[in-house]
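Run log // design_07
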């Protein structure tokens, strides 16, 4: 297995404890190259840096920092740093959950794996939940990530497919294959004033309401199971598309239907 080329990235920065634990966990699976942001880039989703140049710095043996987003890092790795397309891309381990449809829409951790899937790389995003005291046990999360990475090498990934993995705190009861639940955010906007009395604003995190049925990622993690949610990059709502066609909703609006 030493001929594997594995790319690691994240959104917490190349120096984060979660990424360092992941490096240690998969170290002997092959050649491990880390390309990650030079600072925290949480909630950047799939944003790319298009209005300024990017700078890459070698931060250690096989470790590179990029002054950009997770998606930037994956592009830079594949096109400029790695000798070839990697066999696996692992993103994380994130400090905190990425559960439900809303989290994955914002998450820079998931975006790193999404960018990999766009490029045809088998990819997975890993996120760790803190225990009741707010402690993150990255050692057990790294062991789980390693086992999942091993199994990924034997899997067949369809184009645009990836895995979103959420790891509960100890004790872990097992693994469940899940679907996405819901986390409804109602963030507070906190207004303050600078020394010149001009207003500035913080988007607060608030307390999201998490809901999900028996097969959801939210329910699995709450019950102590590792949640593995297969995702795909095609968000087309095929049911709505068929309903629109059948109803003729846009007939007569002066556009060619394309039929």
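design_07 sequence
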């Amino acid at each position: 297995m030493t001929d594997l080329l594995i790319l690691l990235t994240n959104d917490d920065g190349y120096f984060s404890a979660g990424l360092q634990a992941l490096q240690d966990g998969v170290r002997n699976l092959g050649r491990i190259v880390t390309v990650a942001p030079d600072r925290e880039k949480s909630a950047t989703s799939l944003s790319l840096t298009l209005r300024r140049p990017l700078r890459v710095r070698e931060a250690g043996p096989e470790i590179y920092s990029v002054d950009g987003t997770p998606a930037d890092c994956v592009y830079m790795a594949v096109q400029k740093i790695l000798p070839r397309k990697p066999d696996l891309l692992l993103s994380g381990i994130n400090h905190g959950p990425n559960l439900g449809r809303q989290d994955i829409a914002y998450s820079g951790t998931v975006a790193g794996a999404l960018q990999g899937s766009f490029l045809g790389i088998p990819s997975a995003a890993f996120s760790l939940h803190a225990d009741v005291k707010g402690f993150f046990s990255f050692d057990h999360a790294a062991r789980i990530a390693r086992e999942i990475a091993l199994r990924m090498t034997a899997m067949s990934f369809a184009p645009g497919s990836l895995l979103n993995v959420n790891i509960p705190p100890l004790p872990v009861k097992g693994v469940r294959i899940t679907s996405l639940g819901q986390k409804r955010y109602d963030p507070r906007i906190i207004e303050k004033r600078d020394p010149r009395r001009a207003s500035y604003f913080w988007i607060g995190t608030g307390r999201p309401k998490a809901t999900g049925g028996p097969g959801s990622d939210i329910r699995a993690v709450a019950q102590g199971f590792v949640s593995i949610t297969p995702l795909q990059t095609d968000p087309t709502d095929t049911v709505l598309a068929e309903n629109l066609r059948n109803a003729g909703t846009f007939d007569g609006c002066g556009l060619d239907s394309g039929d």
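The chain has one domain: 5-182+211-247.
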